[in-house]
Amino acid sequence: MAEKIDALAARYGREVAWHPYLLGAVYKVTGGVPLTGLPMKGEYALHDIVRSARYLGLPFVVPEPFPVATQHAARAFYHLQDTDPALARRFALAVFRAFFVDGLDISSLDTVKQVAESVGAPGDELGAAVSADAIKARLKAECEAALARGIFGSPYVVIDGECFWGVDRLPQIERWLETGGF
Amino acid sequence: MAEKIDALAARYGREVAWHPYLLGAVYKVTGGVPLTGLPMKGEYALHDIVRSARYLGLPFVVPEPFPVATQHAARAFYHLQDTDPALARRFALAVFRAFFVDGLDISSLDTVKQVAESVGAPGDELGAAVSADAIKARLKAECEAALARGIFGSPYVVIDGECFWGVDRLPQIERWLETGGF
């Protein structure tokens, strides 16, 4: 979804507001569990995600370990977002690619810093930034906002109040943008 | 999926072997729960299923109650299948429409009989047929076969050993049929 949504939105004169949040924080409230741990469904899901990436023409490997903690990456995004939204977007995409293409462990702060530097962000200052109370509170508030909005999964897209969960809803998202709702 | 899969297969010179089974029997083993009962996700799912039907151009109402027990309908299918496969297929589609379009309670044997009669099957004999030990064993074996195959949900399609879960995988199914695998 991260690789597709900006270009899709732009074709219909729309912009995407990215909101990283922690799926784990939401799962604590909803009782959700990582898909990959479920009997039978987990095995299917791993196969399906790889096939879906091929279907969409996107490079993809299943990271190991998967899933991982993403609070450093999410906080770094919000830190960058406040000063340079375009840079934050490039960073977010680079983090997704580091994880889902290069198989890097993005739970590591060092990896997050290296990814930030690769897109031209000052990696060094991120170390302090992601442990600042204000940015921790910011991410916590984003998680609470997601929960309050009824958001239980990822990727999740809201257009004009209409909710779409999963990259497999891209065709419905496009129809929605085309028609203004269907 | 029931409304689309036969025509899609036929376009690629393939035939569909339908295998009704009981999702409840599978959930007992996998720990799965009906989607509609999950916090937040259940509410989304009900909205999504209605929107997905509109997207596919199919009439649909959320049945009430939903989900319901389907063993009468599934056994009736296998009973008809043994003597007239084309009739069994018409019956299956009619049961789906009775449930998902007309909102009838297909857990009722009387409803199953009426649906059978509406497609030209002898409703009266179904009453005895669905309580025969052989047909009960047949459905049980189908549920066990589904579990053994790793099938955890519905709709579920297997093509050349490749598994697809959910009506939202129709585009991938079509690509698979077009290309012989991707």
From TrEMBL, chains A, B:
Keywords, alphabetical: Isomerase
A GO BP annotation: glutathione metabolic process
SUPFAM superfamilies with a match to the protein in the record: Thioredoxin-like
Listed InterPro entries: DSBA-like_thioredoxin_dom (IPR001853), GST_Kappa/NadH (IPR051924), HCCAis_GSTk (IPR014440), NahD-like (IPR044087), Thioredoxin-like_sf (IPR036249)
Keyword Nuclease: no
Signal peptide: none
Database matches in Pfam families: DSBA (PF01323)
Keyword Cytoplasm in record: no
MF terms (GO), sorted A to Z: 2-hydroxychromene-2-carboxylate isomerase activity; glutathione peroxidase activity; glutathione transferase activity
Highest taxon in the source lineage: Bacteria
Residue span, DSBA-like thioredoxin domain: 2-175
PANTHER family per the UniProt record, alphabetical: GLUTATHIONE S-TRANSFERASE KAPPA, GLUTATHIONE S-TRANSFERASE KAPPA 1
Record's protein name: 2-hydroxychromene-2-carboxylate isomerase
